[in-house]
Fold this sequence. Notes:
By secondary structure, the protein is an alpha/beta fold. Helices cover about 45% and strands about 10% of the residues. It has twelve helices and five strands. The chain has helices spanning about 10-15, 40-65, 85-90, 110-115, 120, 140, 145-165, 180-190, 205-210, 210-225, 240-255, 270-275; strands at about 70-80, 100-105, 125-130, 170-175, 230-235. Helix 2 (about 40-65) runs parallel beside helix 11. The protein is extended and about 90 Å long. The protein starts with 10 loop residues before the first helix and ends in a 26-residue tail after the last helix. The model has no long low-confidence stretch (mean pLDDT about 95). The structure holds adenosine-5'-triphosphate. Adenosine-5'-triphosphate binds near residues 105 and 130.
Amino acid sequence: MSDQNRWHHSPTEALKVGPGFSLADLDPDATPGWHGGEDDAVAEMARRGKDLDALQEQLFARGKEAGDTRSVLLVIQGLDTAGKDGIVTHVVGLVNPMGVKITGFGVPTEEERKHHYLWRIRNALGVFARSHYEQVLVVRVKNLVPPETWETYYDELNAFEAEVAAAGTTVVKIALVISPAEQLRRLAARLDDPSKYWKYNPKDLEVHAAWNEYQAAYQDIFDRCSPASAPWYAIPADRKWYARLAVAEILATALEGLELTWPEATFDVAAEKARIASLDPDGPAAPPVTQQPATPQPTTPKP
Ligand code: ATP
C-alpha cells in the first residue's frame, strides 16, 4: 500500500473475519481503517483502480501467454440493497471486462434445480453477485429445505472452496453489511424514483422482516466457513463509498499477493524493433497502376 493514501490499517486485516468475530458488534456506518472522508476516498479509488486494472491485466496476460492457470473468485454477498450491484459496477468495472466473468445468482431455474446446487456455481467461477451461500441464507431462513439438510451444506461449501483454492483460485468472500434503517431508506428511495422501480420488489420487505434470522444465518457462515484459504471480509456498507473503496483495496491486495509479472516475450524483441524501424511510416508503396485497355460498354437500345 502506498503511504499517500489514507488507509492507516489495511482493510484486508481490519475487515477479515477471524475467530470470535461478532456481526452484532459491527457498525455498518463505520469506516474501519480509513482516515479520510468521501472526497479522499474518491481520489484513492481512482489511484487504486489503476493498480487493479494493471494487476488484472497481468493475470489475464499470464493466462493467455504464460500458461498461468491461477484465477480469482470474488464472492459478493449481502441482503437486498446492500450494494452488490454497486461493487460490480464501481469496483469490478474498473478492470477490462474481457478478463472477467460476472454471474448474478437468482432463484434457481428449472434446469438448475435438476442438478446439485454447486453445478451452476462451478460453471460460473469468476465474480459472483450472490453465490453458493444462498443455500445457507435464503434457503435456511425460508425453510426451503429441512434443517438437517441445510446443516450438511456448510461442510460441502468448505470442501468446494478448498478444492477451488487447491486448483489455484484465490477465493475472496465479501459480505456487505448494512443496517436495517439504511435498508429501509434505500428501499424507500427506489419508490421515489421511477428509474428505480425495476429494482424494487415488494418481497424485499420479507427480507427486512426476517432481519434477525438473516443475521443469525450470516453469523453461522462466518463461524463455520472462514478457513484461511477462503476468508470472509465483513464490510460496513451503509456508506457506499467506503464499501467500494474497501473492496477495491482487498481485491488489489489479493492480486498483489499473486506476485504477478508480465509474460516474457516469445520473440526477439530487438529484432522486432529493428523490423519496425525498417518499415515506411507512410505504409507500403502503392502497387503500380497498369493501364487496362478500355472495354467497350454495351449500349442500351433506345425504346
Ligand atoms: P439482487 O437483489 O441480487 O440484486 P434481484 O432482486 O434483481 O437480485 P434476482 O437476481 O433475480 O433478483 O434473484 C435474487 C433472488 O434469488 C434473491 O431473493 C435470492 O435470495 C434468491 N436466490 C438466490 N439463490 C437462491 C437459491 N439457491 N435458492 C433460492 N433462492 C435463491
